[in-house]
User: What shape does this take?
Amino acid sequence: MYQRIRDLREDHDLKQKQLAEYLHCSQQVYSNYELGQRDIPTQVLIKLSKLYTVSVDYLLGLTNNPARLG
Assistant: This one.
């Protein structure tokens, strides 16, 4: 489960449908990302990283430091 993308979405008061539109996918596909039922493509991770201004490593739970480099 990608808890961080769910937490960030909720912290920004966004609905799954809004994120799905931003990412050009269906709400069901986005839901599957959050539930870990579908791997998140690299380009989607990059878009989420830019949207939330956090690192991809943070989104993936590889670090607890949300800071992006560069």
About this structure: The chain has five helices and no strands. The chain has a mean pLDDT of 93.
